[in-house]
Target: Endonuclease III
Amino acid sequence: MERNKKEYAVRIIKILEEDYGHVKCALNFSSPFELLTAAILSAQCTDERVNKVTENLFKRYKSVEDYANADILELENYIKSAGFFRNKGKNIIKSAQMVINKYNGDVPQTMEELLELSGVARKTANVVLVSAFGKSEGIAVDTHVIRIANLLELTEYDDPVKIEKDLMKIVPKKYWINFSFMIQTLGRRICKARNPVHVFCSLNKICPLLQK
DNA sequence: AACTCGGGGCA
DNA sequence: TGCCCAGAGTT
Model:
């Protein structure tokens, strides 16, 4: 079963690479801490909306110190439209303080350390590792990945931790980074949670949903 | 395992 | 105007 699923996964990846092989992180940022901030904001929020928020946020706050010393109410005002802004504002400031106090101002580069930061769990940590540092200790699993991996019958159930473990067994390691980017892009643009655009889907020849 | 934490887009 | 989208933390 594992071998067949691996071959199936690679087939999917090869097809997706034709359309999405060049795709990178959808979040805008110009430093690791900006990416960390954007990634924290992206919880339960689309990347497009995060980019809208960070456009002004990144003009107002330039350094990790600026975030660590930020007035919570003022910062919250900048990030309101990303939703859950009271949690996220607190988390951004607390994470900035920890980056300064514990890591000398540099965003840490391991999963274990990133998970200690406020507002950072596995999905966000994976995003930071991949896009800020080009490292991957796992596969970023968001709702797009859950939906599409289940749809393609690569995985089952909806526990992101379990899905990530299963995908790490099925997807060859050299594809981990691109797999997330490509699936997320497909999920945002084509294979949406609602009203998927089957005609434009790269996978419409093999999608189990369309074979019945 | 179940709950809380908002706001924006679209019908 | 009400439904749906998108993760982390706490109990």
Notes: The CA atoms of residues 6 and 170 of chain A lie 5 Å apart.
